[in-house]
Design goal:
Aldehyde Dehydrogenase, Chain A, domain 1, ALDH7A1-like, Ald_DH_N, alpha/beta, six-stranded mixed beta sheet, aldehyde dehydrogenase (NAD+) activity, 308 residues, 10 helices, single chain
C-alpha cells in the first residue's frame, strides 16, 4: 500500500501517466539510479543493485525483494531483500548471544567503540546525507543534519560511558559498605519511521550501546537502503574491534515484521528487554509507554535510565 500511495503523490504532483506493474511509470522500470553515473556515489556506501536487508554478524535475507524509489520523481534506486520470519528469529538469537560478550566489555571501552562509530559516520556524512535526501525526500541540508544528529549523540554517549556509576552506601554491619551497580538489560528493539530514518535510530543505539545493551533495528521499508548503509558503517567498526556484528543487528521489513516486534515484547518480554519506537500506525493502537519521540534531548535522558 505504501508503494501505491507514493505513486499517487507523484502522479498528482507531476501529472505523469502511470502504466505497468504497481502502476509505476513504464519509462522508469528499465534502469536503477544506482547504475547511472551521476549516482555512482551510492557505491561509496557499499550499496549494490540488490542488497541484503538482514545483518546479524553476516548479511543475508530470505524475504521478498522490494525496490526503493526516489519520492521526488518515482525513479527506482536499488533493490533490498527483506527479512523473513526465520531471519528475524535467527537474528534475535544471535543478538542475545552477542549481548553476553558486549555486556562484559567495560563501559569506557564500549564508549570508545561508539566514538569510532561516530567518527565513521562523520567521514561519510555528506554521502550518507545525500542518500537520506534521495531515498526519503528531505532537502540535502536536512539529510546531512540528520546524520549529524547521530554523530552528536555518539559524542554525548562517549562522555556518559565514564559517568555510569552507583552510590556507595553505609551498612549496618561493621567493616562493610553497600555498593550499587547498574547492569545492562539485554536486547533493545528499535523501530523507526521513514521521516527520520537515521536520527531516531542513532539516539537509541548510541545510548543503548554504552549501557551494555545490543540492538535490533527495523527501519521503514521505504528507506531500506538507508538502514543498510548505516548498518554497514557500524558493522565495519565492530569488525575492526573484533566484536560480534550482532551487537547492532538489522532486519528490514514492513508492518508485519514491526507487529511481530511489538507483540513479542508485549507478550512476556520473551525477546525484548526494551522496545524503542517512533510514532507509527501500530503504536497508535497498541502504545507501549517506554519512550516516544518528543525530542532528542528528552529521549536521550529517558533512555539512559530505561537502558540501565
Amino acid at each position: 500500500m505504501w508503494r501505491v500511495g507514493r505513486q499517487l503523490c507523484v502522479q498528482a504532483a507531476g501529472g505523469i501517466r502511470l502504466s505497468g506493474l504497481w502502476n509505476r511509470p513504464a519509462a522508469f522500470m528499465s534502469t536503477l539510479l544506482i547504475n547511472q553515473p551521476q549516482y555512482a556515489w551510492l557505491k561509496e556506501l557499499e550499496l549494490r543493485e540488490e542488497n541484503e536487508g538482514v545483518y546479524n554478524g553476516s548479511w543475508g535475507g530470505r524475504g521478498e525483494v522490494i525496490t526503493t524509489y526516489c519520492p521526488a520523481n518515482n525513479e527506482p534506486i536499488a533493490r533490498v531483500r527483506q527479512a523473513s520470519v526465520a531471519d528475524y528469529e535467527e537474528t534475535v538469537k544471535k543478538a542475545q548471544e552477542a549481548w553476553r560478550i558486549w555486556a562484559d566489555v567495560p563501559a569506557p571501552k564500549r564508549g570508545e567503540v561508539v566514538r569510532q562509530i561516530g567518527d565513521a559516520l562523520r567521514e561519510k556524512i555528506q554521502v550518507l546525507g545525500s542518500l537520506v535526501s534521495l531515498e526519503m525526500g528531505k532537502i540535502l541540508v536536512e539529510g546531512v543534519g540528520e546524520v549529524q544528529e547521530y554523530v552528536d549523540i555518539c559524542d554525548y554517549a562517549v562522555g556518559l560511558s565514564r559517568m555510569i556509576g552507583g552510590p556507595i552506601l553505609p551498612s549496618e554491619r561493621p567493616g562493610h559498605a553497600l555498593i550499587e551497580q547498574w547492569n545492562p538489560v539485554g536486547l533493545v528493539g528499535i523501530i523507526t519511521a521513514f521521516n527520520f530514518p537515521v536520527a531516531v535510530y542513532g539516539w537509541n543505539n548510541a545510548i543503548a550501546m554504552i549501557c551494555g545493551n545490543v540492538c535490533l533495528w527495523k527501519g521503514a521499508p521505504t528507506t531500506s537502503l538507508i538502514s543498510v548503509a548505516v548498518t554497514k558503517i557500524i558493522a565495519k567498526v565492530l569488525e575492526d574491534n573484533k566484536l560480534p556484528g550482532a551487537i547492532c543487528s538489522l532486519t528490514c521489513g514492513g508492518a508485519d515484521l514491526g507487529e511481530k516486534f511489538v507483540r513479542a515484547w508485549r507478550k512476556q518480554c520473551h525477546y525484548w528487554e526494551v522496545l524503542m519506537f517512533s510514532y507509527c500506525a501500530f503504536s497508535r493502537h497498541h502504545f507501549i509507554p517506554v519512550t516516544s519521540t518528543l525530542s532528542a534531548y528528552f529521549e536521550t535522558l529517558m533512555s539512559v535510565f530505561v537502558l540501565l
